[in-house]
Design goal:
Layout: E1 21-24, H1 29-40, E2 46-50, H2 58-61, E3 68-71, H3 75-81, E4 88-91, H4 103-124, E5 128-133, H5 159-176, E6 184-189, E7 191-193, H6 206-217, E8 220-223, E9 236-237, E10 239-241, H7 242-257, E11 267-271, E12 277-278, H8 279-289, E13 296-299, H9 303-306, H10 318-322, H11 332-344
Parallel strand pairs: 1-2, 1-4, 2-3, 4-5, 5-6, 6-11, 7-10, 8-13
Antiparallel strand pairs: 9-12
Length: about 350
């Protein structure tokens, strides 16, 4: 990993900038950063898909360059009616609220919608990259290895994680049966943070919450540990900067388009940094981004999430490295520093 955050998202090299790319979740956090990244690399023939009626998300997408905007529920009708060739689908749209316990909502948006997308890409021979989640790993009893053998045994802690794992299981089974897009990857996102998450409220990153708490009262509240094997604030997560996430996706997309992604590479991939860090480290980096001394207060964890809380996550990144991705990831200090200084201080968007 590197201590120097990369502020310029542009990558060098030859690209098929004429490609028509669908990006779902394009008004959301990671999706809008993905669209900005593509724009900065010369891609403008983009089909943005999301629920665009949510006013809080408008600043995420209104300045982006694209050729079409399609409401989420209209996408498959739009695809049936269009004569445009679609070159790649980047499916990042999902219901990501881990405190939403109505599984029917997750089933509709995270499972069935993704099945429809998979089936379309398989029928039309279109490469597909989709968002899974580290929430599929549950409490981590079986580790954090992105192999296909373990997914049937995973026990996610909430309906969101269950829905993501159900689709992963279905996708792997479909692929084994020979019904799959020509190239595909399911990315198990770990704790992604960065600009354009301002609309997420309770589900925004701890950095976003810490920054706002510091502005309000000069201190940050962190959850106490409710397990004897973890000290307060020393719960560990694999925090990954969104700028690193979109680079990985672009690399996969380019590999799939230029013939560098053979069928043997299809499958599930972890997307973290491979290094777990404590919440204290995270908050200290946030204070450092504001040139302030840390002031942390510990509070009890809400009971509604206490028995569904991950105390440790750390992505095994070897599979992605073996697939050919060689770029370093930002350290926690570099990524948080860039986010705080470059975006949060001025409430700037990527």
């Amino acid at each position: 990993m590197t201590d120097q955050p990369t502020n310029d998202l542009q990558n060098a090299g030859s690209k098929d900038q004429s490609a028509t790319i669908i990006v779902t979740g394009a008004a959301g956090f990671i999706g809008s950063c993905m669209v900005q990244f593509l724009n900065e690399n010369g891609y403008e023939d983009l089909v943005l898909v999301d629920d665009f009626g949510i006013e809080e998300k408008r600043k995420n997408w209104e300045t982006k360059k694209y050729t079409s905007i399609v409401e989420r529920y209209n996408l498959f009708d739009w695809l049936a009616a269009t004569d445009r060739r679609i070159d790649v689908v980047i499916h990042l749209g999902a219901r990501t609220d881990t405190t939403e316990f109505d599984y029917a909502i997750h089933e509709e948006l995270n499972v069935q919608y993704s099945k429809d997308m998979w089936n379309y890409c398989a029928a039309k021979n279109i490469p597909l990259i989709y968002a899974s989640s580290a929430a599929t790993y549950g409490a981590g009893e079986l580790g954090y290895d992105d192999n296909h053998e373990v997914i049937q045994k995973l026990q996610p802690l909430n309906p969101y994680g269950i829905s993501k794992n159900e689709f992963d299981k279905w996708a792997v089974a479909e692929a084994a049966a020979g019904h799959q897009p020509p190239c595909w990857a399911g990315l198990k996102f770990f704790n992604v943070y960065g600009p354009n998450e301002y609309h997420k409220g309770r589900m925004a990153s701890v950095i976003w919450h810490a920054f706002n708490q510091i502005k309000t009262n000069g201190s940050v509240k962190l959850f106490r540990s409710h397990r004897p094997d973890f000290k307060d604030g020393e719960q560990l997560r694999d925090f990954v900067y969104v700028k690193d996430v979109v680079r990985v996706i672009e690399w996969m997309m380019e590999s799939m388009q230029n013939g560098g992604w053979g069928a043997a590479k299809n499958g599930l991939y972890n997307l973290g940094t491979g290094t777990a860090r404590t919440f204290i480290d995270l908050v200290n980096a946030t204070f450092a981004g504001l040139d302030l001394a840390p002031d942390i207060v510990f509070i009890d964890m809400p009971e509604d999430i206490r028995d569904k809380y991950q105390y440790f996550t750390e992505a095994n990144m070897q599979k992605l490295r073996n697939a050919g991705y060689t770029q370093p990831f930002n350290t926690l200090e570099a990524g948080v520093g860039d986010y705080v200084r470059g975006y949060l201080k001025g409430l700037k968007y990527l």
